[in-house]
Amino acid sequence: MTPREKRKEKTLKQIIKITSQIIRKEGVENLSLRQVARKMNYSPSGMYEYFPSKEALVSAVNDTGLNLLSKYMQRPSPDLPWREQLIERGLAYLDFALEEPEMYLLVFSKLHSQRRSIEEKPITDSPYAFIFKAIEQGLAVGEFQLHSDHSPDTVSFAVWSLLHGMAMLELTHLKGFDADFDTFHRLNLESMLRGFLT
Predict the structure, then answer these.
(1) How would DSSP label each residue in 101-165?
(2) How far is CA 172 from CA 62, 88, 130, 134, 163, in A?
């Protein structure tokens, strides 16, 4: 990487960081490229060299958060049995929420999903896609079966809802609460899967 490329990469990271701070404090609706440029000591025209629009900038912030979450959810070994892999991916999701709380809260409380309907395929490497893939692959190899009134989508949504609910409680209402949440996480995931999968 050339010195110029290194400077550009450093500037991009700084832009993403400042944009994230503004979104957390003031919301996406109050964000502007001019505002970010001012905090960067950049001219507004200089910002357009990096992002052509506010929408592109918000998308980059969203992608940064989801890419980091994706790295967490890729940690479990692909050699694990599918049910255990699904549980470990869920636990990795919670690790991300608790270790990167600001980014987690930004992505899931300030930004919207890029997927617009259930007819669309899950976005590659999104948290939902990791859960969905694990369920589909477990079904494909016959490791488990769905109860007749459920589909991979209903189970994926239920698992994701459980994970998100646990994460949000621990980041907000139960912040600082003394409990063995690690044990609760695994037990809740195992119990939910037993209810959906045979």
Answers:
(1) HHHHHHHHHTS--S--STTSPPPTT-HHHHHHHHHHHHHHTTS--B-TT--HHHHHHHHHHHHHH
(2) 21, 23, 25, 29, 14
Tokens, residue 116: 């617009």
Residue 110 scores a pLDDT above 80:
no
- pLDDT tens, 145-184? 888 888 888 889 999 999 999 999 999 999 999 999 999 9
Alpha-carbon gap, residue 88 to 82, rounded angstroms: 10
Contact at 8 Å (CB) between 110 and 94? no
Distance (Å) of CA 97 to CA 31, 119, 121, 143: 24, 28, 24, 29
Instruction: Decide: helix, strand or coil at residue 45.
Output: helix
Tens of pLDDT, residues 154-165: 889 999 999 999
Name, in order, each residue with C-beta under 8 angstroms of 1's C-beta and a sequence gap of 6 or more.
Answer: 9
- Indicate the SS3 state at residue 39: helix
C-alpha–C-alpha distance, residues 76 and 91, integer Å: 10
CB 54 within 8 A of CB 31: yes
pTM: 0.84
Beta bridge partners of 197: 146
